[in-house]
Design a protein that fits this description.
Layout: H1 3-19, H2 27-38, E1 40-43, E2 46-49, H3 53-61, H4 78-89, H5 91-110, H6 117-148, H7 153-166
Antiparallel strand pairs: 1-2
Length: 191
């Protein structure tokens, strides 16, 4: 038997072990498996591609309460849901406005405190550019939300949390710790 075949057989045995583990079969495990196999998850009645690290990073950049420790509030608003769904659906298209916001914020942080009219003008103008970039992103998220139609925000929030947890890939991994502790959850629901 070739080493490639042996490795494949080891992989199949490991998969079988995972699927037959005592914790397997939970709704979360099954959702993770379906998402991994199909590459899709349904939120607000619409299919979204499986989560990626880049999507989670973009959500963190905009301080989404779904993932960011720097979120202004832990309470999830409808706009937070719209922003997250927009990022999930329009990944590449949404990345440029997020980058624009990040650059404007970074430029603003580097400016010294205004001490004269010229630097005050530059500071105010930079603040306006950041607000415009944030407004453009929110407007795009709201336009996208209009395409979704009516949906249950609480359910969408719960589904988003579950969806983002799937990106961790830890749910179905076997527990290999010697202390007998359960599998590690990297992300927790904020709802």
């Amino acid at each position: 038997m070739s080493s490639l075949t042996a490795a494949a057989n080891d992989g199949y045995r490991e998969l079988a072990d995972i699927c037959h583990e005592a914790d397997s079969g939970s709704a979360r495990d099954e959702h993770e498996l379906v998402c991994a196999v199909t590459g899709k998850s349904t939120i607000a009645g619409r299919e979204f591609p499986a989560p990626t690290a880049a999507v989670i990073a973009l959500l963190d950049v905009i301080h989404s309460p779904f993932v960011s420790e720097f979120a202004e509030s832990s309470e999830i608003t409808e706009l937070d849901i719209f922003r997250a769904l927009y990022l999930l659906a329009e990944r590449e298209k949404a990345a440029l406005p997020v980058l624009r916001m990040k650059r404007r914020a970074e430029m603003l942080e580097k400016l010294p405190e205004p001490t004269d009219p010229e630097t005050a003008y530059i500071y105010v103008r930079s603040r306006e550019q950041l607000a415009d970039a944030e407004g453009d992103f929110d407007a795009a998220a709201l336009r996208f939300a209009d395409t979704l139609g009516v949906f249950d925000f609480q359910r969408a929030s719960t589904d988003l949390c579950c969806y983002l947890t799937l990106a961790t890939g830890f749910s179905m991994l076997p527990d290999s710790s010697e202390s007998g502790t359960k599998k590690k959850d990297v992300m927790t629901s904020t709802t």
